[in-house]
Every structure is written in C-alpha cells, then in structure tokens.
Design a protein that fits this description.
The complex is a heterodimer of chains A (293) and B (192).
Chain A: E1 2-3, H1 6-16, E2 20-24, H2 27-36, E3 40-43, H3 48-54, H4 63-72, E4 77-82, H5 86-95, E5 99-103, E6 124-128, H6 131-139, E7 144-147, H7 157-173, H8 178-187, H9 192-201, E8 207-209, H10 217-225, E9 231-233, H11 235-238, H12 243-255, H13 260-266
Parallel strand pairs in A: 2-3, 2-9, 3-4, 4-5, 5-6, 6-7, 7-8
Helix pairs in contact in A: 2-4, 2-12, 7-9, 8-9, 10-12
Chain B: E1 4-8, H1 14-23, E2 27-31, E3 42-45, H2 50-59, H3 63-71, E4 76-79, H4 81-86, E5 87-89, E6 100-105, E7 116-120, E8 130-134, E9 139-143, E10 148-152, E11 158-163, E12 166-169, H5 180-191
Classes of the chains: A alpha/beta (293), B alpha/beta (192).
C-alpha cells in the first residue's frame, strides 16, 4: 500500500471536477455550502472581500474554526496558508485538511520562495495568472492549479484574463517545434520537461479551476466555457443577500454550463449579488493577483 | 453492435471514464438530463462528491429514471461516489439510488492523507492483480444475499461488488491505464 503519491494527490482534484468549491469562515456556512451541493469548502479567517475592506495581515484560519468546519461536513475541507509559510502548511496538514491552498489572498510570508510542496503528504492547490506560473507551481509539487482572478472584487474580468492566458498558451504549445518549446520554457520561466510534456499531452498534468471574482451563476458558467475544470467562489456566495439560494444556483450553472436555459432558470430570484469593486479602480498595491511569482 | 455507454456528468471525473471507454472503441455519452438516458446500453456513475451528485440527480429529476432502469436490469457501474449512490444505506440522510443491497461507509479510511494505492485480486478478472487507487474512499459494510463480493482488501474489507447487472467499486479504475474493469462492464452491457 502506497500513500500520498502524485496519483492520489492529483486524483482528489479530479474528483472535484465539474464542481464548486466555496469559501467559508464558520461551520454554519460550511453546512449551507454542502447542502447547496458544493464539492468542497475552503476554510479561511475572512472572505477576500472582508480582507480587502478591513486590511491588516491576513493569515491562516484559527485551527478551532477549521476543526469545527471539518466536523460539520462530509465533503473535503481545504484551507489556505500564506505564500511561503511552510509552517502554516504543516499545521494544516497536522489538522488533517484535505487540500492546502498556498494563496495570494493571504498576506505573503516570503517574498522569494513558495512552499516546497513535494515535501508534504497533503496535496496543494496554487494560483496562477499564466502557464509559466502554473508550471512553476506544478514543478514545486502543486497537485492542482487555479487561475487567480482578483479575489474579493466580484469582478470576473481578471479570472477571464488568466483563464484565457492559460488556455491560449496550451493551444499554442501544442503546435510548437522542439526548439520553440525550449525558448518558450525560458521565456515563461518554467521547467522544460514540464513544458515539453504539456505540449505533447495538450493539457496541464493537473486539474485547473477558475477563481477570483466569480459572483453569479453566469460567471461560473463563463469560466467553465473558457475551459475551467471547476470553480472556486469566495466572497460571491456569503457576501450576497441569500447565500443558500445563490450557492445552489452556482452549482447548477457549473454542471449545466452549456445550457443557457437551465442557467437562466437557476439565476432567477437570487436576490442581490455581492457589492462589487471594479478591478480597474484598484490601485496596484491593492491587487492580490500580483502576489507570488 | 458495440454498446453505447452513458457516463453521468453532473460532477466528478466523468471525462476520465469517457476517455477510457472511447479507448476501448465504445461510444460514450455524457448524461446530464433525463433525456440523455435514451438509447443507452449502460451507465457509469463516476467518482466525485456523492452529496453533490445526489442533489443534482434530485434537482434534475434523474434519480427516479435511473433507479427504475437499474431495477429493471439495466447495467450500472458506480466508482467511489457512484458506489455510494448505489447503496441502500450510508448511515446518514442523502439522496441515493438504493439499488444494491448493501451498506456503505463514506470516507472509511479517514481524510485525504489516508488515501492510497494498492494491488487487488478481483474475482472474475483475468491477467492478475488490479492496481487500485482509493481516494477518500468508501467501504462496503454488510451485503445482502443478492450481492456477490468481487474484491477485498488484505484486512477483509469489501471494495468491489456485483449484483446482477449492477457493479460497484470503491476505487477508481478510471485514474489508471488498466481498462480491464471498463471492458468487463462493456461486456456486461453487451450481454444485457
């Protein structure tokens, strides 16, 4: 019997495909997410919109909260650690979380190094803005990728930009010659062997979800149509006027992303979405997506 | 005629199953709505989250038609979450097909860090052991007389079962390159 293999780590992300992973800060919210059909929940101290609003240093969630959330649901429980904070990651592993998100949404702990994820038994998901960043994280051991988007805004534009960048580069890679692959690997600062294998397979070796700015069922379906394997929704659920109903609608839109009739029905009578912040009104230092490298 | 196999595509790793089936030269279709069940010779329920898949089965009125098909001898194969959905009892309230006379314990091995790979001997499967991938996997508890046990772990716990044309595995053959169980199910669908 072998544990914690790449197959097993990447495999859990494969089981989450076509699903919605929802940010929650309490056991009560986790239960609402599970009842709505979430495929997993992400435990954190504050949702990204509140991190933006209140400022300060955003850290890993209180272990007490994580344990309460784990006790409340049967679906996988993920939790975020700060970029480079390998001790927070060790704590999350010790708590038995199912996936660690080394996340730009929290305040980075290290300005030069991400966590060496190969050294962990628990699998990691990491954010990316483009294929180079995705492959660097996979090279460090990430077993799942999500595009970053711009968390806590409710503005989907950045999520779209990042998903288009990744999917576009995947298509371009599959047409390149060997010598072009080497130059591409150098330009995007990604390991050549990974670049070559992705070019051969025509896809990333791990599951890629969309994240950062998804606020409506239509936003979720849009990300699926652009090639996402599934969707993370952060502030979009629990900063809306009726989280239970909106959560269920986002789940339905993610499953039936090719069926506008179903999405239209699911989108009726949801109440108010989260109050958004247009991404372009943010100052450069307010952007979360530019954290990490 | 080669059979047409549907793969329930509400959530989970359905694309891995359709790829395996297509690799065997079998026509495979994604099933999201009741109308997608028409013209199928068998149905695979993939790995994923059983609570999510169960709720979507209910919301889109698939639970009853799939249950009726299964009860009438239509071949259905559930892997992991699919095995859970086939059970009559999982110890907590959630939407189930309830087609196979068995109890199933969800997340029976613990959390993700307890997920594992191991070799299994499967009754009726030729050419040696099957490399099985268990991810937050369930375990079959007690089984009724109609259920045939196909595989057990070394400690005796049941991980593969068959009841007529219903097949259940606690692990994920779709995550490996070994298509023998997919072939077995296609043969079941062909014979049905």
């Amino acid at each position: 019997m072998e544990k914690n293999t790449l197959t097993v780590k990447r495999g859990l992300a494969q089981m989450l495909k076509g699903g919605v992973i929802m940010d929650v800060v309490t056991a009560e919210q986790a239960k609402i997410a599970e009842d709505a059909g979430a495929a997993a929940v992400m435990a954190l101290e504050r949702v990204p919109a509140d991190i933006r609003a209140h400022g300060g240093v955003a850290r890993m969630a209180d272990p007490e909260k994580i344990i309460e959330i784990q006790a409340a649901v049967t679906i996988p429980v993920m939790a975020k650690c700060r970029i480079g904070h390998f001790v927070e990651a060790e704590l999350l592993q010790a708590l038995g979380v199912d996936y660690v998100d080394e996340s730009e949404v929290l305040t980075p702990a290290d300005e030069a190094h991400h966590v060496d994820k190969h050294g962990f038994d628990v699998p990691f998901v990491c954010g990316c803005r483009n294929i180079g960043e995705a492959l660097r994280r996979i090279g460090e051991g990430a077993a799942m990728i999500r595009t970053k988007g711009e968390a806590g805004t409710g503005d989907v534009v950045e999520a779209v930009r990042h998903m288009r960048a990744v999917m576009g580069d995947l298509r371009r890679l599959s047409t390149m010659r060997e010598d072009e692959l080497a130059t591409f690997a150098k330009d995007v600062q990604a390991p050549l062997d990974l670049v070559a294998s992705v070019a051969r397979e025509g896809r990333l070796p791990v599951v890629n979800f969309a994240a950062g700015g998804v606020a409506t069922p239509a936003d979720a379906a849009l990300m699926m149509r652009l090639g996402a394997d599934g969707v993370f929704v952060g502030s979009g659920i629990f900063k809306s006027s009726d989280p239970a109903i909106r959560a269920k609608a986002v789940v339905e839109a993610t499953t039936h992303y090719q069926d506008a009739g179903i999405i239209a029905t699911a989108s009726r009578g949801l109440g108010e979405p989260m109050t958004g912040i247009a991404r372009d009104t943010l100052a450069p230092e307010e952007l979360l997506a530019t954290r990490g490298w | 005629m080669t059979p047409v196999i549907g793969v329930l595509a509400l959530q989970g790793d359905f694309a891995e199953h359709t790829a395996m089936l297509r690799g065997l030269g079998v026509e495979s279709r994604e099933v999201r709505m009741p109308r997608d069940l028409e013209g199928l010779d068998g149905l695979v329920i993939p790995g994923g989250e059983s609570t999510t898949i169960g709720k979507l089965l209910e919301t889109y009125a698939l639970l009853e038609p799939v249950r009726d098909l299964g009860a009438s001898g239509f071949p259905i194969w559930g892997t992991c979450a699919g095995l859970i959905l086939l059970a009559t009892d999982v110890g907590k309230p959630q939407p189930l097909l309830g087609l196979m006379e068995m109890t199933v314990e969800r997340n029976a091995f613990g959390r993700q860090i307890d997920s594992f790979e191991t070799d299994l001997d499967i009754d009726g499967l030729p050419d040696g052991a099957f490399h099985a991938v268990f991810i937050r996997a369930p375990i079959v508890g007690s089984v009724g007389d109609a259920v045939e046990v196909l595989a057990r772990l070394n400690d005796g716990r049941i991980v593969a079962v068959r009841q007529g044309n219903l097949l259940g595995t606690a692990f994920h053959p779709e995550l490996t390159a070994d298509a023998r169980l997919h072939r077995l199910f296609v043969d079941m669908a062909q014979a049905a």
